[in-house]
Amino acid sequence: MQKTLIAVLLAGLGASAMAAGGYTGLGTESVSQETLSRYRPQPIDSALSRRIQFMLDVRGAGGGMLSPDGKRLYYTSTLTGTPQVWRMDQPMGYPIQMTGGEDRTHLAGITADGKWLVILRDRNGEENPGLYLQPALGGPLVEIQHKPKVQTSYQFSTDDSRFIYYTANDETPDSYTVYRYDLNSRSKEKLFSQKGHWSISDHQPDGTLLLTKSLSNSISEHYEWDPKTNQLTPLLGQNEQVDYSVAYGPTAGELIVQTNKFGEFQRLYRYRDGKFTPLSPELKWDIDGFSLDKQRKRLYYAVNEGGYTKSYVLDAKSGQPLALPKLPQADHISLSPADRSGRYANVGIDTATSPSTTYMLDWKTGKLIQWRLSSSPEVDTSRFAVASLEYYPARDGTKIPMFVRRPAKCDPAPCPVIVDFHGGPEGQSTAGFSAYNQLFVDAGFIHVEPNVRGSSGYGKTWLDADNGAKRLQVVSDIEDAARFIRANWGANGKAPKIGITGGSYGGYATLAGMTMFAGSYDAGVAAVAPSNLLTFLENTAPYRRAIRIAEYGDPVKDRDALIALSPINHLDKLKAPLLIIQGATDPRVPVGEAVQMHEAAKNKGLDSELILFADEGHGFSKRSNRVLSIGHTLRFFETHLKGAQTATAAAK
């Protein structure tokens, strides 16, 4: 079957279409200034801009980190238009801005003595952040490390407030070295260096590290590193190709492990002396993550129930559930530690009709404390469309889940439809609040978010269904969404017009829907999208290449499948208008992917637009750029989907 599909997709492709591609490298160095200027974003209509601006001012009140004495809250917010660090000196107090400028800046940690914040700062979406310190009451940043083309990632700070542990790929671009920074001497020390995508999962007071070596987004190996001997002891995952998340347990010689090794779904276990003992009940849903407080007294975990989140807390030693205060009904309820003492926990509440709100649970008093308010100036969020969980059939009969948001009415009917594919591919679209999705609903579109095979949250068979060449078996899920909608959502004898969009892998899905499955969709907007899987894998940042090969396929072993699955090789089939949006500094999907797709389309006389943001990477973070990227997406769909509806008979 697989070879047959490859043969069908390869049929008729010329040798030039199968070539590796016509660009090399990534970032602004790989594209000319003339190209950046030619495809720079143009202004949008002022009324459309105002609609988007109002929605961008709708903000949830997310969680944060409490100071060690519990008297201050530190958090990251986009209030200025770019992520920056803020603090509040009392619940519901006045927010004080700690960092500024246009560079994306995030809070990473607080030292145990409360004197220093640990800050991550990136530039222009390059995803090469630097690591900094800032006095807890504010002031200039003190650089620990910020190097061009190097990812520096915070891991933890020690209980004596002397050391900051971090990783960086500054020795070789595809591997991460573990460093320790001394706050007293302001000097760094290299602790561990081996080839691989290494990070620190946990640590012991004596400096022993629990190290993770990631082989893909869902396969990892785990080791214990002894600082006295520099020896690495294998613990879990070696030669297994299994998904593990690991932390030290409350007693010596014990690990808390999340894995799907023993069943279809992720589950929590206590691991000791080579034996796994279940901690969470056996469910037909995935555990979506866990954490322990600093004292390893409480174990927090979340369950992903088909795109809705429920959270629980256990006594880490006994495994018994702990009572929680009564919480409101919500699409997502999340819990996590909020301070080093273990006394407080973040409790996040997310519903479809109000921006997310986070409370602090005081375990000592049992009370919920609200530090921040969400905001929705001039926007009535109570009218927001509630996502309904629905399904469409794939051609092999598999039920594909999708979240659907509908306008209150369609005039004239039927409403045009936007099918929005998530990234990853291992991501998942979920229920809950979304001002972005509401923009489409307000514009008169039905907004649909499928979770096609390859998405997370539905068990490992579903997750692994699209790995490598297996994608040939399920990529048609993209077309089947449009087939179902066109056949079933018509009105007045007409089928709806359908647009397709998405970012990253969702952008790839968009390009595939517009080319490999041409005719399924009436217009497409692809953001930060791979167009040729061979050139994408050859030019993506070295630190991502091995991780992505494990998902998409090997450029040598799976070459035919990658060629067959590359939208650029199916351009001759393109029938409907296409808009491509890309950040030039993107380290994941090189800007060349967008340029080569657009220019190949234009050379064939096809209807294609291209927008390049010179100061953005894998996604659009600056407020002005977000307005333009969203605005052009809406403008494009309103132009191409709100004309005369296609008759049902003609559509079939």
UniProtKB/TrEMBL annotation:
<feature type="signal peptide">
    <location>
        <begin position="1"/>
        <end position="19"/>
    </location>
</feature>
<feature type="domain" description="Peptidase S9 prolyl oligopeptidase catalytic">
    <location>
        <begin position="433"/>
        <end position="643"/>
    </location>
</feature>
<dbReference type="InterPro" id="IPR001375">
    <property type="entry name" value="Peptidase_S9_cat"/>
</dbReference>
<dbReference type="InterPro" id="IPR011042">
    <property type="entry name" value="6-blade_b-propeller_TolB-like"/>
</dbReference>
<dbReference type="InterPro" id="IPR011659">
    <property type="entry name" value="WD40"/>
</dbReference>
<keyword id="KW-0720">Serine protease</keyword>
<keyword id="KW-0732">Signal</keyword>
<keyword id="KW-0645">Protease</keyword>
<protein>
    <submittedName>
        <fullName>Prolyl oligopeptidase family serine peptidase</fullName>
    </submittedName>
</protein>
<dbReference type="Pfam" id="PF07676">
    <property type="entry name" value="PD40"/>
</dbReference>
<dbReference type="Pfam" id="PF00326">
    <property type="entry name" value="Peptidase_S9"/>
</dbReference>
<keyword id="KW-0378">Hydrolase</keyword>
<dbReference type="InterPro" id="IPR029058">
    <property type="entry name" value="AB_hydrolase_fold"/>
</dbReference>
